[in-house]
């Protein structure tokens, strides 16, 4: 399965379907996406759940006056995107490429981890079947 190109600000913007704040608020969709966040909301209860595309930090409980960059900084100071501290259109090409590369490395790790879990599950099942056969 191809994963969405969440390293692009426009792709992140499109993930915000039921964001509770308006464009007039500091904590608006554009500012969220520019600070690296995309929505991971699944319904009304977690409408403001957002995650960083690069470090994976998930935050909720946002308030209208929150500055997404400040929140990202204070909760994930080590994030490579926070350390660059730039909007997508301010990034140098080399910086953008390094962001994309890191995103892809993270994705590969995530997929590998999920696959390993599946294999472990299967191994457990087979072991159980062998035990009951004795
Ligand atoms: Zn981050």
Automatic annotation (TrEMBL):
Domain of life according to the entry: Eukaryota
Pfam families given in the database record: BIR (PF00653)
MF term (GO), any: metal ion binding
Q: Which residues form the signal peptide?
A: none
Q: Does the keyword Metal-binding apply?
A: yes
* Keywords on record: Metal-binding, Zinc
Supply the name of the protein. Answer: (African queen) hypothetical protein
Q: Look up and give the organism this protein is from.
A: Danaus chrysippus (African queen)
């Amino acid at each position: 399965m191809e994963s969405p190109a969440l390293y692009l600000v426009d792709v992140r913007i499109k993930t915000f379907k039921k964001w509770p704040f308006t464009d007039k608020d500091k904590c608006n969709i554009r500012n969220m996406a520019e600070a690296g966040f995309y929505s991971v909301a699944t319904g009304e209860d977690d409408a403001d759940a957002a995650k960083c595309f690069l470090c994976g930090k998930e935050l909720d409980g946002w308030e209208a006056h929150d500055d997404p960059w400040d929140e990202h900084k204070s909760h994930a100071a080590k994030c490579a995107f926070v350390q660059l501290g730039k909007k997508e259109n301010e990034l140098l090409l080399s910086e953008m490429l390094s962001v994309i590369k890191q995103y892809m490395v993270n994705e590969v790790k995530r997929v590998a981890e999920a696959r390993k879990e599946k294999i472990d599950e299967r191994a457990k099942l087979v072991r159980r079947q062998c035990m009951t056969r004795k």
